[in-house]
Amino acid sequence: MKIPRQPMPERDPQERKRNFKEVPHGYTPELAQKEAERCLQCPKPPCIKGCPVEIDIPRFIELIYEGKFSEAAKKIKETNSLPAICGRVCPQEEQCEEVCVLSKKFQPVAIGHLERFCADWEREHEEIEVPEILPSTEKRVAVVGSGPGGLTVAGDLIKLGHQVTIFEALHKPGGVLVYGIPEFRLPKAIVQSEVDYLQAMGVEVKCSFVIGRLMTIDELFQDGYHAVYVGTGAGAPSFLNIPGENLNGILSANEFLTRSNLMKAYSFPEADTPIFTGKRVAVLGGGNTAMDSVRTGLRLGAEHAYIVYRRSQAEMPARATEIHHAEEEGIEFIMLTNPVRFIGDEGGWVKGMECLRMELGEPDESGRRRPVPIEGSNFIMDVDTVIIAVGNSSNPLVQQTTPGLDTNRWGNITVTSETMQTSRKAIYAGGDIVTGGATVIQAAGAGKIAARAIDAYLKTL
Amino acid sequence: MVKILKHQRLNETNFRIVFDSSLVAKKIKPGQFMVLRIREEGERIPMSLADMDPEKGTVTVIYQVIGQSTTLLSTKKVGEEICDLVGPMGVASHYPEKGNFMVIGGGIGIAPIHPTAREAKKRGLYVIGIIGARTKDLLFYEEQMQKVTDELYVTTDDGSYGKKGFVTDALKELHQRGKKIDHILAIGPVPMMKFVCSTTRPMGIPTWVSLNPIMIDATGMCGVCRVSVGGKTKFACVDGPDFDGHQVDFDLLTKRLSMYESYEKQSLEKFKKECTKEAALKKA
Ligand SMILES: Cc1cc2nc3c(=O)[nH]c(=O)nc-3n(C[C@H](O)[C@H](O)[C@H](O)COP(=O)(O)OP(=O)(O)OC[C@H]3O[C@@H](n4cnc5c(N)ncnc54)[C@H](O)[C@@H]3O)c2cc1C
Ligand SMILES: Cc1cc2nc3c(=O)[nH]c(=O)nc-3n(C[C@H](O)[C@H](O)[C@H](O)COP(=O)(O)OP(=O)(O)OC[C@H]3O[C@@H](n4cnc5c(N)ncnc54)[C@H](O)[C@@H]3O)c2cc1C
Ligand code: SF4
Ligand code: FES
User: Fold this and answer.
1) Which residues on chain A place their C-beta less than 8 Å from a C-beta of chain B?
2) ipTM confidence score
3) Who's near A122: CB < 8 A, 6+ residues apart?
4) How far is CA B41 from CA A169, A263, B37, B93, in A?
5) CA angle A110, A148, B225 (to 5 degrees)
6) Contact in structure between B25 and B56 (CB atoms under 8 Å)
7) Tell me, which fold does domain A237-392 have in CATH?
């Protein structure tokens, strides 16, 4: 291979670790075209199969190579409505890029970087045109939750001439994209421009509207909606249920990230919501949420920011790039370690964390080697802030208030995977509320399938 | 955006504010609460329902000015708008099937106790009310409470009005006189609710309290509102705000409420400076 994979220019770790500016700068047109040249234009491209929404990857890359950036962006949008977001947050290393033929001998084509490039190019260089919208069908669809799944459903259905209203519990639309993923990984202006685009097409967005409290799904039907998509995500934080967990200074990743991202507390006192930042911050967990929390902690002024994880680094579910970014910024990784209790001071603040060392045993159901505690290995970590990022479960509000809506034993809504239809007629669901915590592109992919099925259903009415 | 229809100062620290929010007014029940966000960069602050009018489409909140957000709210005029009002949040008040229902409101807690008392009376319960404040000037809603209770007792800590003492003194006296009390709902500052519970525990009277931990989303998403009830962690925003007071760890609640104290001070000082600057500008 003559041309090596073109690295994405990034902010210097020493500079970026104290601010919230986006870390990668994005490709220049020259870099993008050079990277695009690497693609072999395989006749049977495995990358397409690796993509959960089957983007025509070689074609959009070819368009970039030809300098047709806008066309490239439109090509992606045929199957993925959120390329600027997915180009930034998708785990390409385990999807399209993992199976790219080049990856056998060389580095794979930087498909994610290229996706991001053309979406950014289009946003920065072109007046966003409202696409053609089919004549009104007079059919109304309610979308509950404005995460990537909900946004995708809304975009697809409005183009087909249906009337779409998004109901969002929080005061800003975007779901995890606004309250969870930090600015330095996904600038909020990008999420907002996706929402603006939907609104320009005629989607109505009702924020501060909690379905199950202000109106139930059955009341939406009574109100004249013909179909409902539930994309309420996996928003309920899990805790460890070990002693001392309610001490001050111990918070869920959702609280920490919501304060910082949704409420903009990183700019306190400019924003009114405060955020607590100690000098020694331990984040428990090994996923993207843990990486986002620990890097946020560092940016808010922590002197030591630790990832404490019960397995080894190889098992961490976080994206490889994010682990790499975290390492560059000086995050300290404490692996094979599991807390057993928190220790507080007289004022009720956490001051330490008793941990056990672990070793890896036999593989468990997830195929990863199970961590086993080493007896007597207890030690105390000196910490003043602990952020718990060990997963989320589903928010039960919609399920509890919608009779006949079937769920599995974790409280996730069950659906038929071909249509995303739930146990109830005209109610569809997708994204994290169905799968448990997964990915942006999986939620968007579920939204695509549901939109198709909802459209088909509405045509029968 | 949500419009302010009425805004009235009740006394030195308490205000009554009426919002235009027809959907919430239709749905919300006594015991539930709302979350307000006053300005774009503002906090989300939880406020109990003090009254609703489903016909007119209004909801009323009574609030105490303590920090930056409530000070900001107090500067808003009728006709102006706040960014958001979301609700109803939380679970509605619990009522006994029958018997004597006592409602106790301390300070700002008189506000949420009022619609619950009215609903209890509608359900045919015999309602005994105790309301208390530090001093006469801080007392409000006595007349309204008279209308929705069968008996009403008023206390002030300093004796400037009603009976001198705490709400618990009135409660003890009624109990000693042999008054039958089947179920209590007590709402007020944490020390008051704690004190009511330690008083009623030996009496064996089921006592519910409404907890006011720090909240953000109030949808069960962040866990900042966690409280310990019967040794189990609960999220007050979705599991509550009402809980069996005899099971509540009040000391934990007090500690958790202080978590952001130094930041809150800083925020209020900054806001006051801004206000002084603005006022000076206006003058000039
Ligand atoms: C910190 C963090 C980092 C992540 N990083 C990545 C990453 O790098 N790459 C990746 O692919 N994935 C990542 N994920 C996972 C990804 O964000 C989710 O899988 C995805 O957002 C799920 O989308 P969704 O459509 O199911 O809805 P969500 O994004 O979960 O949004 C659901 C929305 O529904 C609203 N809602 C809930 N209940 C109600 C109700 N009753 N009424 C009205 N509205 C309601 C919620 O307020 C929320 O806004 C991350 C997740 C987190 C938490
Ligand atoms: C369910 C519930 C119902 C409530 N109902 C009422 C009511 O009817 N009337 C009323 O006056 N007050 C009520 N409160 C309390 C009210 O929310 C706080 O007084 C308000 O948020 C303070 O904001 P601030 O910026 O003015 O003060 P701050 O300076 O921010 O805080 C002062 C103190 O208020 C508490 N507090 C701060 N932020 C929050 C928050 N986001 N959520 C809860 N408490 C907080 C803390 O103890 C803090 O030390 C209620 C609280 C809850 C949880
Ligand atoms: S597998 Fe790799 S080289 Fe082949 S078409 Fe896809 S991106 Fe290009
Ligand atoms: S306020 Fe966030 S979970 Fe209760």
Assistant:
1) 169-171, 179, 207-210, 213-215, 235-237, 239, 241, 245-246, 248-249, 251-252, 254-255, 258-259, 263-264, 268-276, 347-348, 395-397
2) 0.93
3) A69, A70, A73, A74, A128
4) 18, 7, 9, 32
5) 120
6) yes
7) FAD/NAD(P)-binding domain (3.50.50)
Strand (E) or helix (H) holding B233: strand B232-235
Q: CB distance from B87 to chain A under 8 Å?
A: yes
Alpha carbon of B238 to ligand 4 centroid (Å): 8
Q: Give me the CATH topology for the region A140-235+394-458.
A: FAD/NAD(P)-binding domain (3.50.50)
Residue ranges, CATH 3.50.50.60, chain A = 140-235+394-458, 237-392
Question: Given 3.40.50.720, 1.10.287.1700, 1.10.8.60, 1.10.1060.10, which CATH number is that of A13-124?
Answer: 1.10.1060.10
For chain A, where do the domains classified as CATH 1.10.1060.10 start and end? 13-124
Q: Which residues of B touch A215 (CB under 8 A)?
A: 23, 27
pLDDT per residue as tens, chain A (461 positions) = 678 899 888 998 988 998 899 899 999 999 999 999 999 999 999 999 999 888 999 999 999 999 999 989 989 988 888 889 999 999 998 899 999 999 888 899 999 999 999 999 998 888 777 788 888 899 999 999 999 999 999 999 999 999 999 999 999 999 999 999 999 999 999 999 889 989 988 999 999 999 999 999 999 999 999 999 999 999 899 999 999 999 999 999 999 999 999 999 998 888 999 998 889 999 999 999 999 999 999 999 999 999 999 999 888 999 888 999 999 999 999 999 999 999 999 889 999 999 999 999 888 887 888 899 999 999 999 999 999 999 899 888 999 999 999 999 889 999 998 999 999 999 999 999 999 989 999 999 999 999 999 999 999 98
Alpha carbon B22 to its chain centroid, in Å, reads: 21
Alpha carbon distance B38, B237 (integer Å) = 20
Question: Which H or E run includes A369?
Answer: strand A369-373
In a mutagenesis test of the B interface, which of A178, A250, A272 is the best target, namely the one with the most B β-carbons within 10 Å?
A272
